[in-house]
């Protein structure tokens, strides 16, 4: 193992396009929403040997609204668009470039809940109305990626999202995701 940190050089990465498929694990303010598939994608441009800035768009798919003693045909979807900052050195480890990093940003979060019904134990039903909320929010996380031949890298990304909700309680979720990136030189 060696501890060489790559500085700016002609072969250094100048940007990356990434895709993060993962599972959104709902948290605070999302008590009756179930875990669901999530997909984030973005582009980062290097501004320093250990820092990059760019944009990310993400989507949380069909988080089912259910709970203790009731079922529902209602679900929520969330879209976010945010500027991002990523920071972390790249190390040479046994011939592989390894990049541990922290990443975060804040921006626009749109959430939609479709209308439907809630059925409680005993069979009683109640209507659930649909809504669209437009809020600010933020995300922060960490991860690591390993460069592969052909300008690709794979890794993991663990991110915490929070919608700062002006209509109700703040809504949070954590997304462990696989990270696949195309690197540009």
List the helices and strands and how they pair.
Layout lengths: L14 E12 L9 E13 L2 E14 L5 E3 L2 E13 L3 E3 L2 E18 L2 E5 L4 E4 L2 E18 L3 E13 L6 E14 L1
Antiparallel strand pairs: 1-2, 1-12, 2-3, 3-5, 4-8, 5-7, 6-7, 7-10, 8-9, 10-11, 11-12
Give me the secondary-structure category.
mainly beta
Overall pLDDT, averaged?
Answer: 84
Written as H for each helix and E for each strand, in order along the chain, the element string is EEEEEEEEEEEE
Taking pLDDT < 50 over at least 5 consecutive residues as the criterion, the unreliable ranges are: 1-10
How is the largest sheet built, in terms of strand order? 1-2-3-5-7-10-11-12
Number of helices: 0
The backbone outline, from C-alpha atoms, is elongated
Q: In what range is the share of β-strand residues?
A: over 45%
